[in-house]
Amino acid sequence: MSDNKYLAFNAAEWEHRKFETQEEAEKWLQEEAREYDDGIPQEFIDGESFVAKITHRTQYCVTDKK
């Protein structure tokens, strides 16, 4: 299982990445926001882009494919 504990989501591009630290995730998201020539996208202003801490993971095993 991955050691990545944080997920950053760029709502303007519907793109996400996983990171080991919150600082790395925030830095990536800030860099993404700066790449737009027309200013900061509305999705960033509205709080739709975010950094989340991964606290739970789920696994499943398919036992019957009927």
Core attributes:
66 residues; alpha+beta; 3-stranded antiparallel beta sheet; 3 strands; 21% strand
**Oligomer classification:** single chain
Order of strands in the sheet with the most strands?
2-1-3
How far from one another are the termini? 28 Å
Tell me the β content.
15-25%
Count of individual beta strands: 3
Overall structural class, as computed from helix and strand content, comes to: alpha+beta
- Helix tally equals 2
Order of helices and strands: EEHHE
Overall description:
The protein is of the alpha+beta class and 66 residues long. The protein has one domain. Helices cover 26% and strands 21% of the residues. The chain contains two helices and three strands. It has a three-stranded antiparallel beta sheet, with helices on one face. A hairpin with a 4-residue loop joins strand 1 and strand 2. It is elongated, with a radius of gyration of 15 Å. It starts with 5 loop residues before the first strand and ends in a 13-residue tail after the last strand. The model has no long low-confidence stretch (mean pLDDT 89).
What is this structure's SSE topology?
Blueprint lengths: L5 E5 L4 E5 L2 H13 L7 H4 L4 E4 L13
Antiparallel strand pairs: 1-2, 1-3
